[in-house]
Amino acid sequence: MTRFKKTSVLLCSILLTVLIMAGNVFAAAYKVVANDSLYKIGTLFNTSVSTIRSDNGLTSDLILPGQELSVRALTYTVKSGDSLYTISQKNGVPLYSLRKANNKWDNTLYPGQKLLLPGKTATESGNAVIAFTQSDVDLLARLITAEADNQPYDAKVGVGAVVVNRVRSQDFPNSIKSVIYQVIGGYYQFTPVENGYINNPASADAKKAAYAALYGSDPSKGSLFYFDDSATNKWLWSKPIRAYIGKMVFVY
After folding, report:
1. Which CATH class is domain 14-21+132-251?
2. Distance in angstroms (rounded) separating the CA atoms of residues 29 and 162
3. Contact 115, 104 (CB under 8 A)
């Protein structure tokens, strides 16, 4: 992946605020177990009883074991090598809460399995498609700055989306940091990590693009790779092209 020449970008910070506040509630299904109450479920998922009632059209606090309730939470897709402990650590969720939210008291997991992430709520994360921290946002924005700071805004979002898509894929690590710093066969997956440009400050435009990708915008159309159209790598060009934005080519 080729680093583009950086150019100065000035944006008002209010644009980022508007982006964060926009978006729909991210809902997931929680199955009620014995001795549950709306209060206990609300505490588990960091939301209120009134919100749960409203989201599910309930007219009372009566719930029954086996009943499915829509809760405002992120979900996590299990990848090969995952354990409940590592998932809890990477996503900042207490292990007991992770077990309780999924009624998961054994340690058996399989790739592709969906788990609720209690405490990762719509209030905290908007309609984010993966869990993230502020340091993740900064790292992703610095990658976008290094790779595409003089490219159209959609290309910047596309770079972020490729990282997000890798986090969600079973073929790559399951966190933003581990994806960006991944080395395969002795080769860095992202050139700015190798040449040090990843350490340069992120532009305001790149930060906005990072949030857009984290909240589900994907101009790359599901791509897992991107490159400059001046690249001569035949393997990259042989892959199905999903999007072509500015000088950025996004492939799957």
Report:
1. mainly alpha
2. 27
3. yes
Separation of alpha carbons 146 and 223, rounded Å: 19
Each residue's pLDDT tens digit, 151-210: 999 999 999 999 999 999 989 998 999 999 999 999 999 999 999 999 999 998 898 899
- Distance, in Å, from the CA atom of 113 to the CA atom of 193, rounded to the nearest integer, reads 31
User: What single DSSP character describes residue 115?
Assistant: E
Q: Which architecture characterizes domain 27-125 according to CATH?
A: Roll (3.10)
Cα–Cα distances in angstroms (integers) from residue 127 to residues 20, 80, 103, in the given order: 9, 25, 24
- 226, β-bridge pairs: 250
Q: Which residues of the chain have pLDDT under 50?
A: 2-26, 121-126
Alpha-carbon span 133 to 143, nearest angstrom:
16
Q: Which pair of tokens denotes residue 51?
A: 């919100």
| Six token digits for residue 176 | 């933003």
Query: What is the C-alpha separation between 93 and 126, in angstroms, rounded?
Result: 17
Percent helix, strand and coil across the chain, each to the nearest 5: 40, 15, 45
Domain residue spans in the chain? 14-21+132-251, 27-125
Distance CA 31, CA 70 (A): 9
